[in-house]
Amino acid sequence: AMLRLRLLTWDVKDTLLRLRQPVGHSYAAEARAHGLQVQPEALGRSFREVYGAQSRRFPNYGRGQGLSSRQWWLDVVKQSFRLSGVQDEAALTKLAEKLYHDYCSPHNWELLPGAAETLSRCRQLGFRMGVVSNFDSRLEAILSQCSLRHHFEFVLTSEAAGFAKPDGRIFEQALRLGGVRPEQAAHIGDDYSRDYRAAQAVGMHSFLLQAAGQGQGPEVPPEHILPTLSHLLARIEK
Asked: What b/e sequence results for 86-123 when a residue is b if at least 16 CB atoms lie within 10 Å of its CB, and e otherwise?
């Protein structure tokens, strides 16, 4: 069946870009540069705990609760180090500022296999393209630094939208930005509920990037599953 798609929207983290190394390792390396010894695994555990708590207390980077995303992240970084035993507040402030900026730079991110080629081909085929990502305002800079920004007409972050996936309102904003009806659009992402189901719920088509052996979770029709990004073209070029 011909899908007649005009717009493709893309998740970013773990769909187009992924972290080169776990957060705990990046944080520990930065601490070492400041003369502090912290175990990467301990930092990783602290980070996951703190990030989870902060996300519950101040969803979507504190948007609507008077917190800037920058402050939201500085608090997460400092608290992760405190929980891992670092007490020096002056060092914490320096570390937090440095890490906040470092995550804008390409040395912390790498492209997933097939990402650049697939995006280029989709543009050549005449699709309109946009990003729909639960991310803060640094995403534009990250995409530019990783040479991906030029593929997209718009970059819609949850911070800018005021809503985070799976809230359908972020997808509705994307459809307005793309100037298309839901059935003319498809979303590509790696998360079953936030990407695949959420886009379907507003009437969009949807593809789930799912590495082999990730068989857990609800049934997704095989024609909606992308073992790699390069599989997308066969699904939409019909």
From this structure: beeeebbeebbeebbeebeeeebbebbebbbebbebbe
